[in-house]
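Worked example

This section walks through a single chain of length 589. The input is the sequence exactly as stored; nothing has been trimmed or padded.
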Amino acid sequence: MGLLGSRLSRGGGRAEDAREGAAPPKAGDQDLDLKQIGERVLPVMLRELPPEKAGTMQRGEVARAIKEQLPGLLSQNGVTLNLLEQRDLVTFLINKILAMAPKLPEGEDSAPSAAGGTALQRFAQKKMGEAAAAGGSVRKQPSEDVGSGHHPARSLQDLVTSKPAAGAVETPKTVEAAMQRIQPLLLERIDTAAAASLSRDELFGQIGELIGELLAETKLQLNRQERELLVDKLLDDMLGLGPLEPLLGDESVTDIMVNGPKQIYVERKGKLTLTSATFRDDQHVMSAATRIVSAVGRRVDETVPLVDARLADGSRVNIIIPPLAIDGPTISIRKFAKKKITLDVMERQGNVSPNLGKVLRIASRARLNILISGGTGSGKTTLLNALSQMIDPGERIVTIEDAAELQLQQPHVVRLETRPANLEGKGEITMRDLVKNALRMRPDRIILGEIRSSEAIDMLQAMNTGHDGSLGTIHANRPREALMRLENMVGMAGVNLSPMAVRTQIASAVDMIVQISRMRDGVRRITHVSEVMGMEGDVIIMQDLFLFNFTGEGQNGELLGEFKPSGIRPHFTQKAAYFGLDKALLEAV
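Given that input, the structure is written out below as tokens.
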């Protein structure tokens, strides 16, 4: 038996009000006591309300019949319960009695309801109408339950324990209307603090019981699937991110973009599509945004209208609200698949070729300093995660990010995250502060989630002072542009260095640039693998090891091409030889 009354329900008002004037509950194992009391009074209750009779009644009628008999039975047994415990006991007895009710033979109906005909008749008529429209026939299914009537073969608990499939975003209008009506009543009757302490599975059963009563009280009629969906949506709002929960559970979705309450886009296989999911209004979006940022100790309001955060699974979130976002609160979520993306997986998906993948493995094993370049949503962080899997488990790794999203598999990882300023404008911890601190933490490798500002100078110094094998990402369209951006970022640090000195430092620190791109067919592909060889005059010299050559378009719109090696001997062959990987490297190129 659940604890809907004693732990969660307020019974239409405050729990304290319900307890006034009632004897205090018995100390000790209260659940066991209530269950024992229920089993003790059940035989007498069955004489007054046989299962055969209960099976022809609506659930509300059964509840009223039990409530009429219960006070006398409790008095006869010398038991005193408060109102909330009595409610729990009534629910227990309802489920017990209805579970004993016999199934109706096929073709028979239960008692007529006030809506006209029985629930089973209305269900059969609806199905037959649908079948007629489709040119077929549907047989009556008396095992289904619709409306507020209760089928004798099922209890309400049976109706709410299964969930709709993950990723479902279509919501019938009847469920939306019922949710708007039921949700305020539900919030009045539950203790939110107690609800927060329960797991989703516990809440699913207990909320389902209360929803059944509320539907009967409000005379709303939902079929089984609609009830399940209603309970699930209410729990999504209470515990999760409302209409975003099915999208977060959909493995095929990689990005979720909320453009105000009525427009939610997702990315699947590199393509953007508009979903049917919506929020009720701006306040509904704000409640989801607040829940996200509160979990990571941040805030979002008019004083802090722009926030970077993360979800519990590491997905990256950006939130921007009015007055900066004109059309309403905007949430952008970059999801990461639960399935780990490795270089082997990328080879099978066509993101890289086997030989290109082998070169990247060797470069990571040989402790090259690698910069991953690409545009927004091109797969830089995914590639960074894949390359990091080549790092020896015995090394100490320090990661530095604005919002922690890297998913490293090594056991010795220290994750650092920046902190924004408080309301007084103080207390900010920048990427540059963390890079400086990381150098004092005895790291073997430093991984920078994204190089975007003055921290570039500290990262270059780290690469030049014994921290080989460091990794980072940068926004740029081509490898040469990545070096130019890096040079400009060093200038943002306010360090008085000549352009020649900056380029020399870049040339000695960065060993390889890997360019990745999301192409118009939605597939991410590595387009360049370029080595930094050194300086010639005041110019940084580079050579391409691999290029993606576009050759055409397939029948299904996919782009055709090949990852073509340049045939040039890699500049880092000598470093690969130090790790015994030079022969494999030369074979790959």
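What to look for: The chain has three domains: 4-103+150-239, 242-334, 343-588.
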